[in-house]
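re: ur msg from earlier - yeah i can do the nicotinamide-adenine-dinucleotide complex, just paste it... oh wait u already did. ok heres what im feeding in:
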Amino acid sequence: MTETLRAAVLGAGRWAEAAHLPGFVRSPLVDLVAICDRDEDLARHRARQFNIPHVFTDYQELLSQLDLDVVDVCTRASPTDPDNHEELAFAILEAGAHCLCEKPVCHDYRNTWKAHELAQAKGLKTKVGLTFRYAPAMQYMYELIEEGAVGEPYIFNGYEQNSQFISPHEPVTKPDLIPPTGEEDQIHVSALEGYGAPIIDISLWCFRDELSRVVGTMQNFVPYRTAAAGQRVRTNIDDGDVYIGEYRSGGFCTIQNSYVAVGNYPGLIANIYGSRGALHCRLVEEFGECQTLHGAQPDAVEFVPLTIPGRFFPPGHQVGEPWPSLFYANLVHNFMQEIVAGGEENEGNFAQSARVQEIINAVERSVRESRWVDLPLA
Ligand SMILES: NC(=O)c1ccc[n+]([C@@H]2O[C@H](COP(=O)([O-])OP(=O)(O)OC[C@H]3O[C@@H](n4cnc5c(N)ncnc54)[C@H](O)[C@@H]3O)[C@@H](O)[C@H]2O)c1
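and the outut:
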């Protein structure tokens, strides 16, 4: 008989509705028992929508009252509680549950390592919302790299960009995009963390290596935006950034992120070039298709489309389903399989998130100090 895991989701907002909750509902390994949101009406609405028996508004009550195997953090940090994910993730691990957490787990990479160490000490598994490594096209690209399709990797170019925040007139619905009052003179890390994390993750994963140093730049292209209440506000955030990274064992990457580069969601592109071939994975929703993979070889240099095998698609997949639920169903099911299987397998966990966050922290330091920054950070 297959074991099922008792799961709860913290946060009942937009991303929970589009990605996390459909993923939990779809995995045959899950019994989704509770939802928690500070907004009780919203939590009750989602409970009805996804047939969830228990509703909470306080995550500490949820953790103390229920016996849970896995708890998911899908809340949103704000300028008033910027470490929201961090606090919740530590509480979940302390309560003895496996933890899935939206990115960033912590803004400071050192705290993400501490969370990883706590999980390890308690024999718990973790996973981070590094959504795009779970796209079927990306999973297939990784398998091809493992099989030697690119040979020795030389160069990785990664992008995560779309035009989500290009309009200065569109009300800002995400409070973390507005710098704290009094800090408007200094550019704040935004797209680098909000969009950068998944493509940085993929740049490390595909090369199976870490970086030895980085240099980058961040720019603010849309200096004023419209706040939710309608007033014009200074938004000195990085809405475009790029960095060069050098891998420890040779090769380099360039990673570019932007909220204001015209194009559709999710806007993630991963291109890898090596001694035996090249692969281009494109996750951009266009004309009904959200993922493509192309490959080329030194003696056949024109890129040709590659068919993604059915084994990379999640349970219950239907042609044309939206990318958030398609990619997240793979992520959630993969995590549940890792927990049920036991053993060491735990990809995209808090340790990987700490490596990603260390690069984000290093690129910020590179921009502030106008120089290359060595990794690991001292
Ligand atoms: N991985 C991805 O590709 C991806 C995509 C979109 C969003 N996200 C992330 O998902 C998270 C949620 O985003 P969203 O768009 O759903 O935000 P949202 O604002 O729509 O919803 C967040 C919800 O969390 C609730 N909340 C906040 N703190 C809470 C707490 N301590 N306890 C209980 N509830 C709490 C809020 O009341 C709100 O309803 C964010 O961290 C965002 O960055 C990730």
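cool cool. The pocket of nicotinamide-adenine-dinucleotide is lined by residues 10-16, 36-39, 42, 59, 74-76, 84, 102-103, 129, 131 (CB under 6 Å). ping me if u need the other ligands too
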